[in-house]
Design a protein that fits this description.
single chain, about 325 residues, alpha/beta, 7-stranded parallel beta sheet, about 35% helix, about 15% strand
């Protein structure tokens, strides 16, 4: 254990998702992507068209399953491969691609409750948008959370409404809070997803988003690097010179600074992300994911710092 930080049993100076799973379940746990083939309200014309400028045609489900197959079929195809190497492993079905509460409640109920009953499944993760959490949906999710370890992943990306407009997010921070609080009132665990390096955002913009997340104190957070993928509107803007990618050094510094202000008991579910090599335009340095993570570890060590060390003092200049 690192002196002053209790949520680690290795060299990590932040509360890793792996540590959380090990401490909670006592063995190897895998997330298994499941794809329901759902869309989003900023794609189908309800609130906008085209989706977020960074989102691919796969709706961020490049590593997800095939929606033409059932939840069980998708799960079993992955579990069968993993079971050969880890016969006693546990699993968490992960509804990732698209907005997974943007559909008929009956359809969603059947899919989520089926996932909760799969063999060796110890929880269910559901990725969605906060503006797709109605009272009826929140009630259904509360019922699901009584049956299994549920975590709902809400894409915030940024607290800047100016940036949200630029990336065609089609909801404001206040709208995000409405959906977030519907889940909080029902004691549902939430993971907040944010993106560093969005077009036009400054270091202070990214830190303001982290401060807001620190204030909300969700169960977990994903810190993601902006990937510029082929075929997206973002790629057109990038190639036209409308914005620049965040540099590797700036990304590492920003993540370390964000970790220092996030409460120590928030699980850090991600520090960067995966982009398919044949679809990625920039930043190419992100392909060396583990090198980036190692350098984040080295920087936290160099600072003799750890997650939450500046949490108590981070709200004096919180801009919301």
């Amino acid at each position: 254990m690192i002196s002053g930080f209790k949520y680690s049993n290795d060299n990590k100076r932040y509360y890793t998702y792996n540590y959380y799973l090990r401490m909670t379940y006592g063995k190897k746990v895998f997330k298994v992507p499941v794809n329901l083939g759902l869309t989003c309200p900023n794609r189908d014309g309800t609130k906008g068209v085209g989706g977020c400028t960074f989102c691919s045609g796969m709706l961020s489900g490049e590593f997800a399953g095939d929606p033409s197959f059932s939840v069980r079929q998708q799960f079993d195809s992955v579990r069968e491969k993993l079971h050969k190497k880890w016969p006693d492993a546990l699993y968490i079905p992960y509804f990732q691609a698209g907005s997974n509460t943007y559909s008929d409640i009956g359809f969603l109920r059947r899919a989520f409750f089926e996932a909760a009953e799969l063999e060796n499944a110890v929880g269910v993760n559901i990725a969605t948008r906060a503006d797709c959490i109605s009272e009826e949906c929140a009630d259904m999710l509360a019922e699901l959370s009584e049956k299994t370890d549920l975590e709902v992943e809400l894409g915030l990306q940024t607290v800047s409404d100016k940036t949200a407009l630029r990336i065609n997010r089609c909801h404001t921070y206040e709208e995000f809070l409405e959906g977030y609080n519907r889940l909080i009132r029902r004691n549902i665990n939430i993971c907040i997803h944010i993106i560093n390096g969005l077009p036009g955002e400054t270091y202070e913009d990214m830190m303001n988003t982290a401060r807001a997340v620190a204030y909300l104190k969700p169960h977990s957070v994903k810190l993601h690097l902006l990937h510029i993928l082929k075929g997206t509107r973002l790629s057109e803007q990038f190639l036209n010179g409308e914005f620049q990618e965040i540099s590797r050094d700036d990304y590492i510094k920003t993540v370390c600074d964000q970790l220092e202000i996030l409460p120590s008991d928030i699980v850090i579910a991600r520090l960067t992300g995966d982009g398919k090599k044949d679809e990625l335009i920039s930043p190419m340095w992100s392909l060396k994911k583990f090198c980036v993570i190692n350098d984040i570890d080295k920087e936290m060590l160099r600072r003799n710092s750890f997650q939450g060390i500046k949490y108590k003092s981070c709200f004096s200049d919180l801009k919301r």
